[in-house]
Design a protein that fits this description.
The chain is mostly helical. The protein contains 2 helices and no strands. It has helices at residues 2-75, 79-90.
Length: 106
């Protein structure tokens, strides 16, 4: 009777080792898959962070340009400033004034 009692315990021991080995292989495969996916996500995250930093820099530059444009727009309501722009850009002179042209020599 003892011989029969030890025989079933050996077969159940083999089965449990086989299940444990299968479970370990499954866990190892799952962890490998998860590691590869996480590594890929870190690469994408780094790329997206650089894109966001670039866009934030463009936003700052656009904000500065917007402020300059608003300042210029408010200055355009001043008659003296308009006169300066007309004289500078269009070489406008008043009656009786003699225009002077200065050439830059190097």
């Amino acid at each position: 009777m003892q011989a029969q009692a030890t025989v079933p315990s050996k077969s159940s021991s083999k089965g449990s080792k086989r299940r444990l080995r299968f479970l370990m292989i499954f866990v190892l495969c799952f962890m490998s898959w998860a590691g590869v996916n996480i590594w890929g996500q870190f690469a994408k995250l780094h790329e997206k962070r650089s894109v966001v930093a670039n866009l934030e820099q463009q936003l700052v530059e656009a904000g500065k340009l917007n402020d300059q444009t608003k300042k210029e727009l408010s200055r355009l309501h001043d008659d003296e400033y308009l006169e300066q722009i007309i004289r500078r850009d269009f070489h406008y002179t008043k009656n009786g004034e003699t225009p002077l042209s200065v050439s830059k020599s190097q």
